[in-house]
């Protein structure tokens, strides 16, 4: 991973990472997914990264989304 990128979240399922990435991109925050899962047994993590300058905003967006999801 290049410098100036921060890991902001880890997932077990690819679709969760993709949904978060899409949410961030809708809010003009570029995001990158790094899949570290074993392809055969699917153990390991999927990591979501954003640039240093977008870290705070990205965390706020994802936390707000989690809060809304938890209320349902």
From TrEMBL:
Domain DUF2007: 5-63
Transmembrane segments: none
Domain of life: Bacteria
InterPro entries from the UniProt entry: DUF2007, N-reg_PII-like_a/b
Protein name: DUF2007 domain-containing protein
